[in-house]
Amino acid sequence: DIVMTQSPDSLAVSLGERATINCKSSQSVLDSSNNKNYLAWYQQRPGQPPKLLIYYTSTRESGVPDRFSGSGSGTDFTLTISSLQAEDVSVYYCQQYYRTPFTFGGGTKVEIK
Amino acid sequence: DVQLVESGGGLVKPGGSLRLSCAASGFRFSYAWMTWVRQAPEKGLEWVARIKSKNNGGTTDYAAPVKDRFTISRDDSTNTLYLEMNSLSTEDTAVYFCTSEYCTNFGCSTKGAYDIWGPGTMVTVSS
After folding, report:
1. Which of chain B's termini has less CB crowding within 10 Å, N or C?
2. For residues B73 and B58, what is the distance between their CA atoms, to the nearest angstrom?
3. 3 state SS for A50-99
4. Measured between CB atoms, which of A49, A55, A105 is closest to B112?
5. How do residues B71-104 score in pLDDT, each as one tens digit?
6. How far is B115 from chain A (nearest CA, A)?
7. Residues of B near A (CB-CB distance < 8 A)?
């Protein structure tokens, strides 16, 4: 199975400041036939199901604010919130969907400092 | 409205069985590759099982912890996804979500990731 490792486990950021979350996969999730990295990011607020934020590493889901961005390739990926807003307080998960089982990272809890 | 609604959760004793259902509406269920994801209390997300559309063979995949105990199935005539869970242990205690890509009569989104989620149903395994 592909193991997804997120860091940090939690971070506290001041409103308006940048938050950066890292995700590392134990194997490449790059499909060389189409040059796509099969990596998604989800946001989960307490008591809610996850919400898709970004797919194929860097494509924002419709309606997701542009302060959210994704980058990376191969085995190393990053989710950046450029200017943290109060409503961004959540747990964020990366997921690889390159090979089943489609494993998730352990999650990163983002709070306001 | 596009919707997934899980049901069938509850309290079950270790060694027992339970069947979860997920009712889909507002999208072309028969085209969708459907997935169960679970979340133990205060823990992260865990991918459980997936079933492809019948057009893609209807094949199934399972995570190692549930393989040979859980069975995912679908009924396209009623737009319902199922998860049959046997030999349950306390480690199976979790909220179970069903999830999918959005599909229309013209095909499914090509995101690969899950853009439709149900609210989840709680399964508690305890004596």
Report:
1. N
2. 9
3. CEEEEECCCEECCCCCCCEEEEEECCEEEEEECCCCHHHCEEEEEEECCC
4. A55
5. 999 999 999 999 999 999 999 999 999 999 999 9
6. 6
7. 35, 37, 44-47, 50, 61-64, 97, 99, 111-115, 117-120
